[in-house]
Write a structure and sequence with these properties.
3 helices, four-stranded antiparallel beta sheet, PBECR1, membrane, 6 strands, alpha+beta, transmembrane
Length: about 140
């Protein structure tokens, strides 16, 4: 695939009805989230609801942009504005090639490596509740 990334993203995004159902499920579980700040919400191959919020310099999209946007550009040729769509696609449609539970700051979370289109790999830190803490490119 060229550096223009044409054809990279899935053209069948999650329906608004499914997204609303996932948000309602988070509410029913009593999860802490800010609906207005959700960048995307989806399910991954494990069936877990996963969501990314705008966040801040420590977690979420703002953290990913501040700390890892140059890594996405170097690894995949992506600009900052392409990262949210790419992450939604790789988490929604990617294959999980590793999944381990780790403890960070006394909290259980998942460290998942996703593979997409046979060659794009990311490592994502995901809270046990499904909140995306961070994500960045990695190798096989």
């Amino acid at each position: 695939m060229s550096k223009t990334n044409s054809g990279l993203f899935n053209t069948n995004p999650l329906s608004p009805i499914a997204k609303k159902a996932f948000i309602q499920e988070l509410r029913n579980r009593g999860e802490k989230f800010n609906e207005e700040k959700i960048v995307f919400i989806t399910k991954d191959a494990t069936g877990q609801i996963i969501w990314l919020e705008k966040g801040n310099n420590l977690v979420g999209l703002e953290h990913i942009i501040q700390r890892h946007s140059e890594h996405f550009e170097k690894a995949f040729g992506f600009k900052q504005e392409q990262i949210p769509n790419f992450l939604e696609n790789i988490i929604s449609y990617g294959e999980i090639v590793s999944n381990r539970i780790i403890i960070k700051k006394g909290r259980k979370c998942f460290e998942r490596k996703y593979k997409y289109n046979g060659k794009y790999y990311i490592l994502a830190g995901i809270g046990s509740n499904g909140f995306v803490v961070s994500a960045y490119p990695t190798t096989k």
